[in-house]
Design a protein that fits this description.
The structure is a single chain. The protein is an alpha+beta fold and 122 residues long. The protein has one domain: Winged helix-like DNA-binding domain superfamily/Winged helix DNA-binding domain (Arc Repressor Mutant, subunit A). The chain is built from five helices and three strands; from the N terminus they run ααβααββα. A three-stranded antiparallel β-sheet has the order 1-3-2. Strand 2 and strand 3 form a beta hairpin.
């Protein structure tokens, strides 16, 4: 994984970002970006996300993370999915907004989505 990623100005005028119900979901989405692998994927377990992305923000509980993920999936910013009973997520427009140099990136860390999406009740 890269140490950092680009955050382009287009995020400010994104209709999908505007459709998110909370600023918490917007913040979490942007803070995810440097943690994504070369394909725009990361763990989808709310507890892991809490511990990795927002470990020091007490207001961000695992339940709040789960609500934010459901909202991101609802507007089409992420695909939240299962592989072998483990949750992962895929940012849907990652390649459009990142200039990836695959020769310098580490190998894929997270499995590709199959046909199973996660719902907030899962």
């Amino acid at each position: 994984m890269a140490e950092g990623r680009m955050l382009k100005r287009a995020i400010a005028t994104s209709k999908k970002m505007a459709e998110l119900e909370t600023d918490s979901a917007r913040l979490l989405y942007t803070w995810f970006i440097p943690f994504l692998d070369v394909e725009g994927r990361f763990y989808g377990d709310p507890d892991v996300i809490k511990g990795s992305i927002v470990p020091r923000i007490k207001d961000f509980t695992a339940e709040k993370v789960k609500e934010c993920l459901a909202d991101m999936q609802r507007v089409g910013l992420i695909l939240w999915y299962l592989v072998n009973d483990d949750k992962y997520l895929q940012f849907t427009v990652f390649e459009k907004h990142q200039n990836i140099n695959r020769d310098r990136e580490s190998k894929l860390v997270f499995p590709a989505p199959e046909d199973s999406c996660v719902t907030p009740e899962d």
